[in-house]
Write a structure and sequence with these properties.
This protein has about 375 residues and is α/β, with parallel strands linked by helices. The chain is built from 11 helices and 11 strands. It has 2 domains: about 240 residues, 3-Layer(aba) Sandwich (Rossmann fold), CATH 3.40.50; about 90 residues, no CATH class. The strands form 2 sheets. Strands 3-2-1-4-5-7-6 form a 7-stranded mixed sheet, with helices on both faces. A 4-stranded antiparallel sheet has the order 9-8-10-11, covered by helices on one side. It is globular, with a radius of gyration of 21 Å.
Length: about 375
């Protein structure tokens, strides 16, 4: 197996979480993000050698150097998220995908198409517009000569955060038999998305085989800052959160208080039937991190202990840990910016697992044949 570094492009790079996840065996040739705050965080952690800050639609193929083994694209998800307006790929943010795809077509025309492409987005991509958005992505890949398949991966397998994602992996090369077949983490939403595709696209489909990761050994409580190092909400503010609970959510809090142990939970405020409700969980997981756009996007932590409950907002460093970022990672100094960076990112250990178990075994023989 070749030990030369695998090469990659990182589009919609954010703070470089895909780069961190790919790891030391990978070399970045080019990175791009439109957001100035995210670009600043990328530079603070990785330098400025490969980053091009600006609109992906303003890039041309000649701006992108060399031929990479992999193009990674975590395109904006706001128009596809279940928490958003579901405008789909026609939405103002998520349509940036086609700016990325225009570059892939330009590289292919020059004989520089990446050997593999990963497209990561929210799980809403599987069902957006009745599956038509997912089919549009698959059609683009097929039209460029790629075969493809998709996985639904939840961050909860790696970090204590519930965060399901659609991950499409496409390749132009031969497929090692060990990488295909029934995945250990197959989900119904993937099978239904595949079966909705027209026959010409189903013929390009790959059932990727990805082993399940080792069992996660940390829960939400293990990632939190010491109680004395954070700012707690007042008892009145906490009671206001509790007063907005009902049904199963109030029962969960009551059970945590009755346990006699310190129990840590997570909560969001959401609008339900025109009323604001607090929805809580005490299963050892945080809810899906989101950008701090107000309302339900602000995640609370609840601590039930000695018959009392306290509450506070999740901190930027805790959010970073839930994304798998090391404490050495330099976050933006402003809280809102740091939470935005985390909420828009990709989970680092999920990328590492995908790289080690699928991408590297896929690309190693392809590169060996190209070098022969």
């Amino acid at each position: 197996m070749s030990r030369a570094p695998f090469t990659f492009y990182e589009f919609f790079a954010g703070g470089g979480m895909a780069r961190l996840g790919l790891g030391e065996r990978w070399k970045c040739l080019f990175a791009n993000d439109f957001d100035a705050m995210k670009a600043a965080a990328y530079r603070a952690n990785f330098g400025d050698d490969h980053l091009h800050a600006g609109d992906v639609w303003r890039l041309a193929a000649e701006d992108v150097p060399g031929r990479a083994d992999l193009a990674w694209a975590s395109s904006p998800c706001q128009d596809l998220s279940l928490a958003g307006a579901r405008a789909g790929l026609a939405g103002g943010r998520s349509s940036a995908f086609f700016g990325f795809w225009r570059l892939m077509e330009g590289l292919a025309a020059e004989g520089r198409a990446p050997r593999a492409i990963v497209i990561e987005n929210v799980s809403g991509l599987f069902t957006s517009h009745g599956g038509r958005d997912f089919a549009a992505v698959c059609a683009a890949l097929a039209g460029a000569g790629y075969r493809f398949g998709a996985l639904e991966l939840d961050a909860a397998a790696w970090t204590p955060q519930s965060r399901a994602r659609c991950v499409i992996i496409a390749t132009r090369g031969d497929l090692p038999a060990a990488l295909t077949g029934s995945p250990d983490n197959a989900t119904r939403i993937v099978a239904e998305a595949r079966d909705r595709l027209p026959g010409r696209l189903r013929g390009r489909w790959i059932d990727w085989r990805l082993p399940a990761p080792p069992h996660r050994n940390q829960d939400l409580a293990a990632l939190l800052e010491p109680d004395a190092a954070v700012r707690w909400r007042t008892p009145a503010q906490t009671q206001a959160l509790v007063d907005q609970m009902d049904g199963a959510h109030l029962l969960r809090l009551d059970a945590a208080l009755a346990s006699g142990e310190r129990r840590v939970g997570a909560a969001f405020r959401r609008m339900r039937s025109g009323r604001q409700r607090t929805e809580a969980r005490f299963d050892g997981l945080a809810g899906c991190l989101r950008t701090p756009g107000g309302g339900s996007s602000r995640q609370f932590l609840l601590v039930a202990e000695k018959g009392e409950v306290r509450s506070r907002l999740i901190s930027p460093r805790e959010a970073a840990r839930l994304m798998g970022l090391p404490d050495s990672y330099r976050l933006p100094p402003r809280t809102t910016a740091a939470l935005h960076l985390a909420g828009d990112g990709v989970v680092v250990p999920m990328v590492r697992h995908l790289a080690a178990e699928l991408l590297e075994p896929l690309l190693s023989p392809q590169r060996a044949r190209a070098a022969a």
